[in-house]
Amino acid sequence: MPRLILMFNKQVIREYPFLKDSITVGRAEDNTVVIDNLAVSSYHARIDRAGTDFILTDLQSTNGTFINENRVVTHKLAHGDNVSIGKHILLFVGEKGKAESEESDQKMSLNKTMMLDTAKQRELLAKQKGAAPVQKPIERIGVISFVDGSGLGDIELNKKLTKIGKSESSEVQLSGLLMGATAATISRRPAGYTITFTGGMTKLKVNGQVVKESIDLKDFDTVEIGAYKFQFYLKDVKRD
Amino acid sequence: MEIKTSGITDVGLKRDHNEDSYFIDDPLHLYVVADGMGGHLAGEVASQIAVEMISKSYRTWVENQTPVEELFAAPDKSLSAKGNYILSSIRLANRVIYEMALEYKQYHGMGTTVVGLHLSPDLVIAANVGDSRIYLIRNDRIEKLSRDHTIVSEQIEMGMMSEEEAATSPLRHILTRNLGSAEETDPDVFELVPAHRDRFILCSDGLTDLVADEELLKMGREADDPERLCRQLMDLVLKRGAHDNTTIIAVFVGGMKKAKKGPLARIGLTLADLAVGLQRLIKK
After folding, report:
1. What is the per-residue pLDDT across B140-155, written as a single tens digit (0 to 9) for each?
2. Closest residue of B to A129, CA-based?
3. What is the 8-class DSSP label of residue B131?
4. What strands, in cross-sheet order, belong to the sheet with B133-138?
5. Which of A208, B34, B133, B280 is the least buried, fewest Cβ under 10 Å from its Cβ?
6. With an 8 Å Cβ cutoff, are B79 and A176 in contact?
7. A6-29, pLDDT tens digit by residue?
8. Is this prediction's pTM over 0.80?
9. d(Cα B249, Cα B74) in Å, to the nearest integer?
10. CA A171 remoteness from chain centre
11. In Å, how far are A237, B27, B76, B80, B110 from B67, measured between CA atoms?
12. DSSP category for residue B150
C-alpha cells in the first residue's frame, strides 16, 4: 500500500498509508498530516490519487513545497521522492517494483551521492547561502603539561594514539612500582581527545574523579596517573 | 580477544543495481565498505576496486612488515605502522580508480567512498573517505569514528549550517572527498584501543539516511549477535523505503575483560594508594 513517511532530522515520526484518495498536509489540525511547525502553512499541500498516479499540489504555501532541490506547484510523485515541507521530509513510498522512467532518474540525481570539485562546490554554495568564503576551521593539537615536578614538561600529542605507561614503546614513559606497561591512552577522535584507562594498579583521575573506562578531555582538564599529574590543553596549530 | 562479524548488502527498493561493495577478512581483522558512484556500472567497478586493492595491499604490507618509508604514500607520523598501511592502501586504491577513470571512457567520472576498520588486541584503526560511516558503541554511548566528507558537514563545522538544516538540505549527499576524482585523496584515520564489549558498525549512507544514531545505539546495544543486528537494521531500511543501496558490517568484541576485582584486588588497590603516597613523600 503506498504511503508517506514523515521524517524530521532523519528520524521517522509517523507513517501515513493512503487509506483514502487524498492526503492533506499542513499546520491546521484537520489535515491528514499535521505538522506543528511555523515553517509550515495551515494548508500547505495535498497529495491526490489519480488512478495509479499520485499527484502532489502545493496550496500556495508561504515557504513552498520542494521535490529534491526544486520548488513545485504540482508534481507526479515517483517512488522514493523526498517532499520537503518546511524542515520536514515526507518520503513517498509507492508500490514495490521497477518502473523507473529516465525522467525520475534525473530528478533523483541529487539523492545519489555525488562528488563536486571545488569550483562547482563554491558555485552551489553561493547559490544557496549568499557566498561566504570557504575557510577551514583552525586546527588545534592537544598538549599535556606536567605539573608534578617530574620534569617531563610539555608534551605535544602528535600521534593519533598516545600510549602512557612504563613500557618503552609508550609515547609518554612514566615510571613507578605500580605503573602499568600501558596505564592509559589518549586518542584523537573526530570529535576531540579522549583518555582511556587501560590497566595497571595506578588509578586514573580526571579533575579529581576516578575514571575506570574513558572520558573526553576538555581544555584545561587536570589528569592524575599514580603520582603523576598533568594538565591537558589545546594549542592552535600555526598554518603554513 | 574474541571478534564476531557479519555483513549484509541490499540493492534497495529504488536502484537497478548495487554499487556498494564490502569485504570481511577475519584472519586479518580488516573490514571495508565502499559505496560507488558513476554512470552505468562504473560505480560497481569503483567500489570493487577499492575493496580489493585495500585488502590486497594491506595484507602484503602486514605480512612483509614493510617499513613505513617504503609504502605507496609518504608516511603519516601521527599514525602507527599499521595505521600507515591502511592509509597507504587507501591512497593506492584512489590512484588506481583515478587512472582507470581517465583511461576508459565508460569509467569516466567514477568514484567511491570507503570506510575501513582494523582490530587487534591493542589497536583499533578506523579510516574513511566520503560519507560512509564507522560507529563505535561503547559503554551505552555511540560515537562516530569517521568524519563525513560532505559540503553540509563542513558547513556545520564552520558554524554556517545547523544539523537540522543539513538533514533536509538538498546538498546533503554531495561529497568533498572520494576515491577516484583526484590524483591524491586525503583519508581521515583514527586510532584507539579496543575495550571489552565494543561494537562497531560500518555502513554506507543507505543506512544512515533512514536510521538515526539513537536508533543505531539502541539496536546495537541490544542485539545478541552481529548477524541479528545486520538483519534488523536492513529490515528497518527496507521498511522505510530503502531509496539507496545499503551495506552494513557489524563487529562485536568480547573476551577482553580486565582482571576481576575480588577481595584480594581490593587490598591491592589500597596498596597502590599507599605506594602513591610513599612516592610523593620520597619526592618531597
Report:
1. 999 999 999 998 888 8
2. B160
3. S
4. B2-10, B246-254, B199-203, B133-138, B141-144
5. A208
6. no
7. 888 777 888 888 888 889 999 999
8. no
9. 30
10. 32
11. 28, 22, 12, 11, 32
12. B
